[in-house]
Amino acid sequence: MPTLAPPALPCSHELVLKVIPMPADSNANGDIFGGWVMAQVDLAGAVLPARYVRGRMATVAVKEFVFKQPVRVGDILSFFSHVTRIGRTSITVDVEVYAERMSQQGKYLKVTEAQLTYVAIDAEGRPRPVPVQS
């Protein structure tokens, strides 16, 4: 299995979340539920768009989600994100997730990646323009 120490990411990627999955997050095989990982990716993916949106937003699309390796109980997961597109009402981000296995801390293994789109919404839940950055 290839490892990176630390992940060799472009400078546009930012560490937005670190989390350790616990036994309650695992399936019958002892691996972490894919859905649990997806929820964490959604949380991590929302961090950078929140800086632009400055208010309510909603996840509207997940274009791609690729699981490359299983996630295990006790892995230290690092979520890196970067904005790839800012539209009139939406923001798209890429999220990459790396695991440090408990027995191999300091060595990073890419476990998944995804592309998510968030839309800015008003109080009624309708799309609204993303504020212009100054």
CATH architecture: Roll
Distance between the termini: 44 Å
The major β-sheet equals: 5 strands, antiparallel
Classify the beta-strand content into a percent band. 35-45%
Task: Label the overall shape.
Answer: globular
- Can you tell me the number of structural domains? 1
Protein name: Acyl-CoA thioesterase
GO molecular function: long-chain fatty acyl-CoA hydrolase activity
Domain HotDog ACOT-type: 11-124
GO biological process, one term: fatty acid catabolic process
Short overview:
This protein has 134 residues and is mainly β. It contains one helix and five strands; from the N terminus they run βαββββ.
Would you mind describing this structure in some detail?
With 134 residues, this protein is mainly β. The protein is built from one helix and five strands, in the order E-H-E-E-E-E. It has one domain (14-120): Roll (Thiol Ester Dehydrase, Chain A), CATH 3.10.129. The chain has one helix spanning 34-53, and strands spanning 14-19, 57-67, 76-86, 90-100, 109-120. Residues 11-124 form the HotDog ACOT-type domain. Pfam families: 4HBT.
